[in-house]
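Run: sequence + iron/sulfur cluster -> complex structure.
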Amino acid sequence: MINLLDLDPKALATFFAERGEKPYRARQVSRWLHQRFVDDVGAMSDLARPLRERLGAEAEIIAPTVIRDTTASDGTRKWLIDVGSANAIEAVYIPEGDSEERSRGPFADATSELDATAPNAAAPFSSDASTGRYRGTLCVSSQAGCALDCAFCSTGKQGFNRNLSSGEIIGQLWHANRALIADGVAAPWVAAGHAPITNVVMMGMGEPLANFDNVVAALKLMLDDNAYGLSRRRVTLSTSGLVPMIDRLRDECPVALAVSLHAPTDALRDRLVPINRQHPLDDLLAACRRYLDKAPRDFITFEYVMLDGLNDDTVTARQLLALLRDTSCKINLIPFNPFPGTEFRTSPRERILAFQRTLTAGGIVTTIRKTRGDDIDAACGQLAGRVQDRTKRKLGSRIPVVATR
Ligand code: SAH
Ligand code: SF4
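>> structure
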């Protein structure tokens, strides 16, 4: 049986063509799946009965199984999703309200994570008429665990179990939209007929570029007008720096790119982000500059986790400025989010602000990510899910960069 959620727009077209059906059938079914979020072929009422019966016999819609659904005090909502063999991944919904809500919190003067990738930093909310000043962002996972083992990341510490299928990746967006609509989410654009999720960040569990084919299939659905219809600038992929795959993404599906930098020298980055030993900073930045040719925005976002006493002093900020001199970019500082057993501490707020001032004075637009959902462990780097069977952990230099479908 084929899981219809596994098929990207091209694969869905092929599926119908192979069965002698007209191309518009694929578009019709795509809209049922990804715009009306049905989980039953029988509900696709504008398909002729024989086609529905045939579809029902040959295909199915395997929706995510949610094990836990938690909402934080700031409205952030986290779904723990079963992916079989006692493994679970997490998807996080981050609603962004009006400016009053945005002025609260520990970093009242900072802009939020999404501002760093907004088209115009001076206008933090999108001017898109369909969403006005609001956003509903979904943080999506790409793997059960992660093999790259970054020192400061809870997912990395879980080890790696397996790649998610494209259906499991797009299923997170499918489920979030469906659940939010069912719960009557109070978003003005939903009342106007738009889906609750307006932005996607591939920043959940896993390294998306290590599961390339399945992630790109899901990205294509996110962008397709008969599916989620998001513009490329509203879909951001974050990578720890798999250089060859950055080039492939540029060629095959150039969405907005965020790169987890975290250190301005190879010596420090080798320690924090072990993949740097294979793809050092010079190679990474060259790939970023190549990406800019096709990127939907004219800058790359560099994420930089603020670790107390490790990478947060003024000298380091100046090294960062020198490193990024020739690369059109913005920097998003992420206060380190602790998790049980970690040896790291987050930098004091004053030091984060001083770091930001140095970078801004050096001419790079620098934002500080607002921590969301930390009371339900939904903040960056806190997603642990449930990763069993970690036999594939620490593959050393044999990092899996090619997907198995
Ligand atoms: N694997 C991808 C995307 C997932 S992680 C990547 O590494 O880019 C999303 C972001 O959260 C990355 O920038 C990552 O470095 C950061 N992160 C990981 N652990 C964190 C933690 N404990 N506190 C703050 N940010 C963290
Ligand atoms: Fe994997 Fe990203 Fe965590 Fe590194 S930071 S271990 S690449 S999920």
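>> summary
Residues 146, 148-150, 153, 155-156, 206-207, 240, 260 surround iron/sulfur cluster (ligand 2) (CB under 6 Å). Confidence is low (pLDDT under 50) at residues 98-131, 394-405.
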